[in-house]
Amino acid sequence: MSKTDDLRWIAQVTLFGDNRGFDKLTQKYQSSIRRFFMNLTMGDVPLSDDLAQETFIKAYLNLKSFQGLSGFSTWLYRIAYNVFFDATRSKKVYEDINEYEIDQNQFTKNEFSAERIDIYNALKILRKEEKMVVLLFYMEDKTHVEIAKIMQCPLGTVKTYLLKAKEKLGNYLTKSGYGTV
User: Fold this and answer.
1) Average predicted confidence (pLDDT) for the chain
2) What's the predicted TM-score (pTM) here?
């Protein structure tokens, strides 16, 4: 599926009122948006699902405002970024995580839940902007330019956030016994 498909599906919805186009967009992007939120919420599945649903609702309601200046994916991640920070501001997202609860929830799904908790704890030491850049770059395979558009900040700032985050994460993980990163 290409960007051309995205534009065709958007036109299908906005010009012809055929919502099957939005179903296709949702199917294409829902896994990556949910994964993005799972990482931001430190594994909180219900919250991640709620935020992803809110993202797609907002995208659908505002689809006519999509101008195509960037890719649909970039536009959608910008909405997800705003949804996350709106939820954070309204105190829907809790910073403290229960490591035991995460171990129990992830045990059947992931044998390496202790390592996952170490990564989540490492991410907690980052400023919110640094965490966002790390997750977009490494987990969502977004380019520096796409991240700059999503976060609406200069390209140099994105690169600086990523550099500082890598330094902090490297130091933290080295101190936690993971050796040289």
Assistant:
1) 84
2) 0.71
Provide CB contacts within 8 A for 59, sequence distance 6+. Answer: 25, 75, 76, 79
Q: Note whether 124 and 118 are within 8 A (CB).
A: no
Q: How far apart are the C-alpha atoms of 117 and 140, rounded to whole Å?
A: 19
Closest CA to 38 of 127, 110, 111: 110
Report DSSP state, residue 65.
Answer: G
Return the minimum-mean-pLDDT range out of 82-91, 110-119, 138-147, 151-160.
Answer: 110-119
**Residue 53 carries which side chain, given as an amino acid letter?**
Q
- Residue pair 95/128 in contact by the 8 Å Cβ criterion: no
77-109 burial code (b ≥16 CB/10 A, e <16)? bbbbbebbeebeeeeebeeebeeeebeeebeee
> Residue 160 has which token pair?
């600086």
Q: What is the pLDDT of residue 59?
A: 94
The more confidently predicted of residues 3 and 49 is 49
Q: What is the mean pLDDT of residues 77-92?
A: 85
68-to-29, 62, 148 alpha-carbon distances in Å = 17, 13, 16
Q: Is the CB of residue 170 less than 8 Å from the CB of residue 128?
A: no
